[in-house]
Amino acid sequence: MQTPGHLTPAYSPQAAERLASMADVTASDAALRRFLHGLPGVDAVGLEGRAATLGTRSIKTTAKAYAIDLAISMIDLTTLEGADTPGKVRALCAKGVNPDPTDRTAPKVAAICVYPDMVKTAKEALDGSGIHVASVATAFPAGRAALPVKLADTADAVAAGADEIDMVIDRGAFLSGRYLQVFEEIKAVKAACARPDGTAAHLKVIFENGELATYDNIRRVSWLSMLAGADFIKTSTGKVAVNATPPNTLLMLEAVRDFRDATGVQVGVKPAGGIRTTKDAIKYLVMVNETLGAEWLTPEWFRFGASSLLNDLLMQRQKLSTGRYSGPDYVTVD
Amino acid sequence: MSESRLGVFKTYKLFVGGKFPRSESGRVYEVTDPKGNWLANAPLASRKDARDAVVAARKAFGGWSGATAYNRGQILYRIAEMLEGRREQFVREVAEAEGLSRSKAAAVVDAAVDRWVWYAGWTDKIGQIAGAANPVAGPYFNLSTTEPTGVVAVLAPQESSFLGLVSVLAPVIATGNTAVVVTSERSPLPALSLGEVLATSDLPGGVVNVLSGKAAEMGPHLAAHGDVNAIDLTGADAELATALETAAADNLKRVLRPRDEDWSAEPGTDRLLAFLETKTVWHPIGV
Hints:
The structure holds two protein chains of two kinds. Chain A is of the alpha/beta class. Chain A has a single domain (about 20-320), classed as TIM Barrel. Chain A has 13 helices and ten strands. In chain A, the strands form two sheets. An eight-stranded parallel sheet of chain A has the order 9-7-6-5-4-3-2-10. Chain A has a two-stranded parallel ribbon with strand order 1-8. In chain A, β6 (about 200-205), α10 (about 215-225) and β7 form a beta-alpha-beta unit. By secondary structure, chain B is α/β, with parallel strands linked by helices. In chain B, about 45% of the residues lie in helices and about 20% in strands. Classes of the chains: A alpha/beta, B alpha/beta. The interface of A and B includes residues 318, 324, 326 and 327 of A.
């Protein structure tokens, strides 16, 4: 048994034991509802004020260089389009391995995020690079499919070699108050992430904050997902009008912090969608550091779901290393 | 009552991306007439203002270069119309800025208005002058057409703060380029007021960005900037021009060197052609 206060990663067997100690709150729909509605209400004005204040920190020179490299190494470089081709996925993988061909000191990204049918292509392209393949699953982005379909989708991606699964929750069920159904579904998908050799793909749970309507709901769904065994919680699919915002990400970071204090289990956070500039990315890193601390400032526990962000980070990196402003002509178009 | 009324001073601001921001740095400097009397405080733009201006100019480039030459001509003519309507203001500002008599300042402003009209007429004609149907030994149409260079940084003349500025700016945008203009350091006020005219002339935001301040401060960053395609060094002194040309060579910018120019003379097409690229296409002749 580990000492209290020591952090257990969400994907370790010990975490499952610790979560089992919370089994009473998830024993029935009524118990889960009582627990989630018993969470303190969110002070919306305070939350937005805090997020805005943290966004005003000035990060310059060496600290900025560090933040840029850290942010690059945290990117889940994403292509989730109907028009994705194997060629496009391979090109994206090549960019992930070597983001700036003019400067080999640029770090590689954390993962390449694709649809399940592209996992095999991405896996082959990334062979030996150490970059993970993340696959969206469970009828992304709407999540409107029967559970067996979602599980098959997940198992398929895992069998094709996905290291990480990004699932979407059933927002319809959550908003109509069927919390236990959402909970059981996450547990079932987590089970489907298991590989025959006993290991498992890491599970990221996407909330789609833009569809959850209130901050209270975001706090509730954060706890619900973490109780169900999420390794990461992720703001959004990037497919709706409102995606990651500083306040809703800060709220999730706070939920992760409170969950750590309550259970000792460490869960990661991934804001996705709408983060396009270096300035934005650095604001998120400041929030992570101030809310959760430096243990979370690694790609293992914090990710950016992004595509165009990488180019801006690279241009800023070039500016820092050469002293000259760079431009879009000096990064790849993808 | 009227004797006790307090005057309303104008806050001169930059013109970037169709908006009127203060300098990001918060700095201003005192602008005086040639005799040293205070006229106003002008923003002292920083390298970050220049960076933001380049971003705005790049964003505007697609729309402006893609607009028809006819449409660009209409908008340039509209600028002349708007300027004519504010003639009195510009006569006063130019007279104060350059220490000219009222009648001489009026002649300068009239010449500036006429310059917009001159370049408005050229927008849909320069292609005929600079383009060609080339004779080739094969069954092809071979056509050379003009294309705008891209984002052009312009260091406006230091002495002729208004007519000179219009004379270097108008040809840049007439052909579909977008511009980041650094005004005369000593007399930036007419140029900053020109921003207000541009903003009300259907000119898309970001096509012209006006920065007041030191050419020596912003010039090196604009010359070395990877997303600026050309630089006009008219407002740089000899030493600065050499340094900027060196910096611009590193990223293969098109450079227009400073030279002696008479702003009141008919401008010709030199400045129109300075920031144009030639695209040549081979098209098979069908049956």
